[in-house]
Design a protein that fits this description.
The chain is α/β, with parallel strands linked by helices. Helix content is 37%, strand content 11%. It has a five-stranded parallel β-sheet with strand order 3-2-1-4-5, with helices on both faces. The N and C termini lie far apart (33 Å).
Length: 223
């Protein structure tokens, strides 16, 4: 079976992406990154998801982006709460982590080179996270081109790297229905940007609100 590296945060989207990669016939190598995020308890969820969805291997890389800051997730900046859909659609939110997906995909690319994989999976989505510049198709296409110029296999022509974003144009409800059909246990995931130390979601940040909206529209109970 071909191998694929899946960026696995421990959230709803990345868990579904891992399930999709398995459905599509890949041996899956999951990669999580401890980048100093305030919601780093999600990494414990990633371990559960990787195990339950049969990842061949799951690695966690530590890279502290708090040294850069600039985000509510990596600096002493308040996470926005109780925002309306209109407010979420305006501009780039303060929860954007500068260059995060570029960095994470770079790590995934390096991991892929070491395990002989040419397919990278990321749970990017332009409908629910349209404010994030590094979740757009144009960015993912550009990174794919970069990957094939920046690697030994790309230069030698022994393989071509591909970036997959299977959820890119799905609504949250569609993502949830897809995941349920593929056996994802969403009780093992965490989507909150500002959970309690015990991992209890705040229920008020953008990510919590979008998750709740998705389950409501999918007519599925989040438990």
């Amino acid at each position: 079976m071909p191998r694929a590296v899946i960026l696995l945060s421990g959230g709803l989207d990345s868990a579904t992406t891992l399930a999709v990669a398995r459905r599509d016939g890949f041996d899956t190598y999951a990669l999580s990154v401890d980048y100093g995020q305030r919601h780093r308890i999600e990494l414990e969820k990633a371990k559960l998801v990787a195990r339950s969805l049969g990842a061949v291997e799951h690695r966690t890389v530590a890279l502290d982006l708090r040294a850069i800051g600039g985000s509510a997730l990596t600096a002493d900046v308040a996470v926005p709460k109780d925002r309306t859909a209109d407010e979420m659609d305006r501009g780039i939110p303060v929860t954007y982590v500068p260059a995060r997906n570029t960095i994470l995909l770079g790590l995934a690319l390096g991991y892929a080179e070491t395990v002989g994989a040419f397919d990278l999976f990321i749970g990017a989505n332009v409908l629910d996270y349209s404010g994030y510049p590094d979740c757009r198709p144009a960015f993912l296409e550009a990174f794919e081109a970069l990957a094939n110029h920046a690697t030994k296999a790309g230069v030698e022509g022994t393989g071509r790297f591909r970036v997959h974003a299977p959820l890119i144009r799905l609504t949250k409800a569609e993502i949830i229905r897809l995941g349920i059909s593929l056996g994802v246990e969403y009780s093992q995931t965490l989507s909150c940007y500002d959970p309690s130390p015990a991992g209890i979601p705040c229920g008020r940040c953008d990510s919590c609100l979008l998750r709740a909206k998705g389950f409501l529209e999918a007519a599925i109970r989040d438990e």
